[in-house]
Amino acid sequence: xxxxxxxxxxxxxxxxxxxxxxxxxxxxxxxxxxxxxxxxxxxxxxxxxxxxxxxxxxxxxxxxxxxxxxxxxxxxxxxxxxxxxxxxxxxxxxxxxxxxxxxxxxxxxxxxxxxxxxxxxxxxxxxxxxxxxxxxxxxxxxxxxxxxxxxxxxxxxxxxxxxxxxxxxxxxxxxxxxxxxxxxxxxxxxxxxxxxxxxxxxxxxxxxxxxxxxxxxxxx
Length: 220
Prior knowledge:
By secondary structure, the protein is of the alpha+beta class.
């Protein structure tokens, strides 16, 4: 396959416009927090569809776009996911995690109970697609983890921009998601994201983020 090339249209902004946009976006994203106390209040699913569409604009290795976003609304499926996730999490907290990891988690107040998986009105399950299988051949995808990660980051930013809250949940192992959601063998679970509005009594740890000087260097 050979692509046709088209002229790239670009609207160059002034410094003040770029700076204004950048500051506004930073303030928006700096308010993003991982939420574990959700309201059951629902909303129009078109918001999630738009967020997924936005995530689909992410760059990817060889433009393979190796991702799939499954939206779960069914209470029965959410409960099945919660039961399976809590089983794995309980095993992790009680047997798999080293003491250093448990020590790092302790100030955040997390444990193996995952009520939010049922309370949040929607779950978005992100799958990475390792390859595409056709009748004739298997077509490999490239930089799958990196591509799925970038798309997920854009998804989270889009949801934040819509006034929704999220949690990035990574029960390990996550193979149960592939089975529960009946996904093909070339799709592997990547991330589980409850999404909705915060509960009225929602609280988050009073954490700080690293200063710019700790995450940034410039070489001249």
